[in-house]
Amino acid sequence: MSVTVNHTPSPALPPPSRVMAGGPLGWVRANLLNGPINAAVTLLLAYLVVRYAISFIDWAFIHAIWEVPNDRFGRPDTALCRDNKGIGACWAVIGEKHRFILFGTYPYEEHWRPAIVCVLFIALYIVSAMRRFWRKELVLVWVATLTIIGILMWGGVFGLSYVPQERWGGLPITLILATFGLAFAFPLAILVALGRRSRLPAIKALCVLYVELIRGVPLISLLFMASVMFPLFLPEGMNIDKLLRAQVAIILFAGAYLAEVVRAGLQALPKGQYEAADALGLSYWQKTGFIILPQALRLVIPPLVNTFIGFFKDTSLVLIIGIFDLLTAAKTSIIEPQWQGFAVEVYVTVGLIYFIFCFAMSKYSAGLEAELNRHRVR
Amino acid sequence: MSQTTSDPRYGLKPPKRPMRISWSDERFRGIVWQVVVVAIVAAIFWWLWSNTVRNLEVRRIASGWGFLGREAGLPIAESVIPYDPTNTYLRALTVGVLNTLKVAIIGVVLATVLGTVLGVLRLSKNWLVSRFVGAYVEVVRDLPLLLQLLFWYAVLQGLPGPRQAVNPATGVFLSNRGLKLPWFEWLDAHSWALLACVIGIVLTLIWRKKALARQMADGQPRRVWPVALLLCIGAPLAVWAAQGAPFSPDIPYLRGFNFQGGLTVSPEFFALLVGLTLYTAGFICEIVRAGILAVHQGQWEAAGALGLPRGRIMRLVVLPQALRVIIPPMTSQFLNLTKNSSLAVAIGYQDIVSIANTTLNQTGQAIEGIAAIMLVYLTISLSISLFMNWYNTRIALVER
Amino acid sequence: MDTTKRRFSVRRLLAGVMGAGLIAAATPALAQAPAAGTNLIETIRNRGQLICGVSTGLAGFSAPDSQGRWTGFDVDYCRAVAVAIFGTDQNRVRFVATTAQARFTALQSGEVDMLARNTTWTLSRDTSLGLDFPATSFYDGQGFMVKRSLGVTSARQLDGATVCVQPGTTTEQNLTDWARANRVTIRPVVIERQEDNTAAYNAGRCDAYTTDASGLAAVRSTLQNPNDHIILPEIISKEPLGPLVRHGDQRFADLVRWTHFALIAAEELNLTSANVEAAATGDQRPEVARMLGRSGDLGQMLGVDNRWVVNLIKVMGNYGEVFNRNLTPLGLQRGPNALWTTAGGLQYAPPFR
């Protein structure tokens, strides 16, 4: 086969047209209506989107009932809402139950405490998300904040009344399970990831066994184990609170998944980094602590955030073992006879809370990934 | 071993020397530390085990697998194999495993198809379509699956009752009792035909391999599809016809409280399937999109320059390369879907978790019940991993 | 050489830190449950709180209200035992929500002192779990509820019907036993949580819903049009529900048992939360005098204050008041739970003597 190569330079082409060339109309023509099939698809989709959006707005706002009067016993009378079912939403259920959904069975007069806890958690997330705070001191900030959160939730000091864990509930439980899960699982994961890359066969085997066993079974089975099997493991007379048992299960679960994320980071580092550190005569720990981990962990922050989103959602599974997290509290709030049957309103509200948290984190992770990649590509 | 250095000593291993029983010997320390770690782990497990044994004794909880042979007495709503409450716990648990497998297999297939389609649409030039798919992915990925399942179950329960069922075609009914489809009575002849079909598929695969080998030898492409058609469809049909071609349709009809006959898709199964499929498809969509984007634009251009049409570029050039990027994360999505099917317990689909849970409630034997759940999932997970690893090595780039 | 030496010491260090961290985290939540043989009443008094396991949510029996306060019939039994131990304070109870699955483990392991969680007394539970049923607080039986529009008047007409049932309970086994005995084919829909079952029945997923008759009445009262639903006359099982305690501490079991009897006896003797204070000084009936601690030392025999019944009735009211407060709003009748002495029911207190 012969290949002919044309050496005459071809005339320069005009630069590609900008997206917005031709104004908004041109953009519409280029992106929505290019070709008959595309135009048909666009129109159909637009029609469906608009139609369902209108009926949703109708249900959620125009025909919605925002509050209900009390009956003669001073209890809310929901007859108005029941007649309106299928036509409009009954947001009165949220008005009545929002504090239960958010804080569960926490003592009513003390609700300001879990409220501050939620704000602290959010502040902690925001501070940790900012790159300029990625310093060693951040660990101290975490320790301090988690301690304050513990004091606020438990009380018993500084004139705060003591509140046992059984009474905690709602959003703080979700945040606690996810955050403490991450905080404890992360060091565990680093150890396991290092262990899995160790040259010592017994240690490597233990780490592999742990990771593969945990990743091979669903979280529910671990939670069941925490709920009904942990009490059998402990000597007679000693028992651990249900919430803590679930927390341990989540830490073990998160540890195995995070270990794989960290391991990916360790593997992604060029071998030269290891060899250079060895050449400097650094000990294993100096090498790992000063050279390998800082680089490897930086690489895995975006997948780490994604894994965290997963845990945040997965904490909702504690519903099945009867811990009052956000979703359980929401489901329990509609047990009272007069409020039965308003599940959709409650699910929509709770879904919105989950969505806000997860969406913010996933956008952040995507932005961070782009930023880190730009840095690397350069 | 670097090939760039010319020093011949570089490739040599340091000479072996006998291990000294001394703390300054690296290998000796390694062994000591491993023994210590293993001993600590073993001690912890022994402690837990001895506590458990003592607790079981003190609380008079039975142990062992003896209960498997006892009568279960628990009702199961849907089952792949015949089941009655008078059957044993073993059979009840088997039904649970099969129900898990059923939803997992169908879910994996549907999620893969839907996810791939969405992944391609996500890259569509139509702004509205790609944004719509993007919004969909964002919503399903940012809401807990449990919440989604509860939502879908609530939606399906909102369908009309059996007497007002939606009846889009003869024998097809959609109501809050589920989806009813026409089916036919399964007879021995059908089993034989199915067997013939399986044998046909195996023979076809062998034929294809031979045909490829001969094509390698003489360069002549051979058609596989006529043989495939003959073996996979013709032979089973012949077997069926040889037995008199029995066929008795089973069309659902309303009698008493419920529909009788036909094929039932229960709302619990349907809600679980829809929830799992839509959720996992959101993740698969992103994987497929990333996979396609990972194939260099130059591959499209080069294939186009060879004169290949767009469809064949996708099939012969881009997809095989994208698959290498797609397969590993896809495997973990399949595993996730299977494990997530355990959420069935929240919406009343009786999978292995639900049945093992009831079993441990009735017998009080928590350890055996949870061990059964874990064993089943570990087996399924390992099987999927092994299969996908095998597939992955098959399509991996062979570097020469 | 140096590399590996450091490596292992660091690993050990980290393992130590991890272990210490986990233990430190666990310490505040570690509770020393009473070992067998010690006096549980004394332990509860020292702790300052009774820990009581209740269900995660069952209208009328135990459910948190909008302010997160636990209310219900079972909850009141927990409060009653707390009042018996501590005197007037009914809030010295910690409620632990337990699932049907974890309830026995929670009590066995000492996580809770007692369980008041609509649990049916059966022989196998009494003998094989290491637990005791001190009293029957509520006599129940399993029934069926159907939509009136189905035209069904007897459970035997349910052949081929879809029935919603909760798994892992006696309910489920009763259903299969009954169906077998009566040659009725049932299509079960097995849903874990009580409120999900109710929702499924209400949405028409099932033709019938089966659970304890009290539960059916409670559910029926909350449906949009209670008159569209009927509870079928057949009661297919006996469901004596009551509190549970650990086997081995008979003093606590006695206290729980006699707290129940005190509630019953108070109703038999017409003592209510309104008049018990006056009766403690003014009522001349000898049994009242003994029960309310004016004569004798019945309270001390149980290991509590002699005026325990006065406190108990003043705070909680008698059995009838507890019933009316929690279960009457759901449309439940006293039925078998009426007093034997006045209405021929099953509730009956042995003599306070």
Automatic annotation (TrEMBL), chain A:
A GO term from the CC aspect: ATP-binding cassette (ABC) transporter complex
PANTHER family membership: INNER MEMBRANE AMINO-ACID ABC TRANSPORTER PERMEASE PROTEIN YHDY, MEMBRANE COMPONENT OF AMINO ACID ABC TRANSPORTER
Cellular compartment(s): Cell inner membrane; Cell membrane
Protein name as catalogued: Amino acid ABC transporter permease
Similarity comment text for this entry: Belongs to the binding-protein-dependent transport system permease family. HisMQ subfamily.
One GO biological process term: amino acid transport
Keyword entries, A-Z: Cell membrane, Membrane, Transmembrane, Transmembrane helix, Transport
Residues annotated as transmembrane: 39-66, 111-127, 139-163, 169-194, 206-234, 246-266, 346-366
Keyword Transmembrane helix set for record: yes
One Pfam entry name: BPD_transp_1
Single GO MF descriptor: transmembrane transporter activity
Domain ABC transmembrane type-1: 171-365
Membrane topology of the entry: Multi-pass membrane protein
InterPro entries hit by this protein: AA_ABC_transptr_permease_3TM, ArtM/GltK/GlnP/TcyL/YhdX-like, MetI-like, MetI-like_sf
UniProtKB/TrEMBL annotation, chain B:
GO biological process, one term: amino acid transport
Domain of life of the source: Bacteria
Gene Ontology annotations for the cellular component aspect, listed alphabetically: ATP-binding cassette (ABC) transporter complex
Entry membrane topology: Multi-pass membrane protein
Keyword Transmembrane helix annotated: yes
Location in or out of the cell: Cell inner membrane; Cell membrane
Annotated family: Belongs to the binding-protein-dependent transport system permease family. HisMQ subfamily.
Protein name according to UniProt: Amino acid ABC transporter permease
Organism encoding this protein: Rhodovarius crocodyli
